[in-house]
Amino acid sequence: MSEIRGQKSEVRSQKRRYIRNVLRTSYFVVIASILFFAVSANTSCKAYSFRDISIPDTIKTVKVNFIENKAPYVDPQLSPRLTDKLRQKIVSQTKLSQTNNDNADWVIGGRITNYAFSTSGISQQQVATNRLTVTVHIIRTDQKSNKTDEYDVSRNFEYDGNMSLQQAQASLGDEIIRGLTDDIFNRLFSNW
Q1: DSSP one-letter string for 128-164
Q2: Which domain holds residue 85?
Q3: How far apart are CA 25 and CA 105, in angstroms?
């Protein structure tokens, strides 16, 4: 009987040690997590941080004109898709109301000025990768202050050297629209 009591006592002691170890480990994990997030928040790399959207309080409406394609090579889908995506992003991520009236507070327009292909990598004397460079010239007119700002936004897109021009355009289409729209939006509203 005393032997059974001794075993039960030993089992209870093992359970208590196990629970203490679990609590210590949990405590350590919680403290380590808190420290990690605190340090990460204070030492984040400023190169990848984005500023808040910067729109004067007096600006309430925006008109986004069609972005024309004036590049030497014209992708017929680029202008309408880029214009639509920019309009959607402005409406969904700002408090500006979109209008088609000429008396909008801001009028945004522009043109695609460059759509060029080049070789970006060679391997064993053959083209390994190609690069598509797209440049958009953006004009923002503040009709309230009668001020115009102009920006050039350019982005490179790499693709496999074995792809044809049509395959590259089909493959990169969504990435081109998304990347250019983000860059234009950030340039217009974040001043970077």
Answers
A1: EEEEEEEEEEEEEEETTTTEEEEEEEEEEEEEETTS-
A2: 61-189
A3: 59
From 84, 82, 172, select the one nearest 133 (Cα to Cα): 172
- pLDDT, tens digit, for every residue of 85-130? 999 999 999 999 999 988 999 999 999 999 998 877 877 777 788 9
Q: State whether 28 and 65 are in the same domain.
A: no
Q: Quote the pTM value.
A: 0.69
Amino acid letter, residue 138: I
- Sign of torsion, CA 169 170 175 180? positive
Q: Which residues pair with 92 in a beta bridge?
A: none
Burial class (CB in 10 A: 0-12, 13-18, 19+), 132: buried
Residues 89, 172, single domain; the answer is yes
Structure tokens at 73: 């090579």
* Tokens describing residue 79: 């202008």
